[in-house]
Amino acid sequence: xxxxxxxxxxxxxxxYQESMARLPRLxxxxxxxxxxxxxxxxxxxxxxxxxxxxxxxxxxxxxxxxGTDGVGTKLKIAQLANRHDTIGVxxxxxxxxxxxxxxxxxxxxxxxxxxxxxxxxxLEQLVTGISAGCLQSDAAxxxxxxxxxxxxxxxxxxxxxxxxxxxxxxxxxxxxxxxTAANDCVPGVSGQGRTTKxxxxxxxxxxxxxxxxYSLVRxxxxxxxxxxLDEQVPxxxxxxxxxxxxxxxxxxxxxxxxxxxxxxxxxxHGIAHITGGGLFxxxxxxxxxxxxxxxxxxxxxxxxxxxxLQQLGAIDDAEMYRVFNMGIxxxxxxxxxxxxxxxxxxxTFGLESWAIGQIVESPGGxxxxxxxxxx
Length: 375
Description:
Elements: H1 13-21, H2 24-28, E1 35-36, E2 45-46, E3 62-70, H3 74-81, H4 87-99, E4 105-115, H5 120-137, E5 140-148, E6 158-169, E7 185-187, E8 193-195, E9 200-205, H6 214-224, E10 232-233, E11 238-239, H7 240-244, H8 252-261, E12 268-273, H9 278-284, E13 291-296, H10 305-313, H11 317-323, E14 328-334, H12 339-347, E15 353-361, E16 371-374
Helix pairs in contact: 1-5, 4-5, 9-11
């Protein structure tokens, strides 16, 4: 009887070991003193606080914050382009940008990579991107899992998932409850009521499509228009592949800097990551009852990739704003008085931002807030 080995079934353990040997340096470069070494351990270890006093956080009532996400069908573009060193940045961004919406500091990240066959070079490229994303996020990459499943994935296919854990003091948790609407009656010094301006809606620029809506993107660009990834897009100054693989912007460091800048004042009242569902759906998620958001038309610069896509596929305006971020990757709802100060701080990180709207009371005092155009 012929002997059958694991390699015969599509899994080569020697090649797998080669893959694993390429990864430790990529993890280690993201580590901070809070990572607890456990060589050849079965899990990653992480202290909530620093052992020394110099950088100690001195948490009083810490809340752990967790998020998980994937990259979606943007993976297919990376596979078609045979470029795998940036998609890991998207993976980290989709997780980290979610957990910072409640004011959390990212602590550590883990990844799950599923592949059709052992491919040490490709795996190294993927984890290179993940490591780079963790460095941008100040998060430690403390572990992960690589699964080889030849009967589940076709040759060259792979999938990614990410898992991020962060922390925030309960007293600094951003849950939207402090979002303030215009025309609230606030007691003044004399006891008389006074009218206040509503919070400003500050939109922070995206780097293009990020990692949402790629099923529509592929349908329009590859199937409908029949473009190849190496074709030039004159209006954008890049090839199709470069445009579609532009990594998602990671906002962790600039937002943490803004939050840390105001140690006493409550300036940031809400944060929304603009992903699937677009600006209107995601901003509405953080609005408290009887509060609405009004967005000013033409109040920010839309990256040329979106008009190009829209024209290419004859996509309705409403569909564009429902599927894509349209140039706004993150929204801060902030005290109106501090708008310029926050914008200046974001600019030091190379981020453009715009005051794109205002928080108001919902018409008729309705319970559920909404986001709508004005002007």
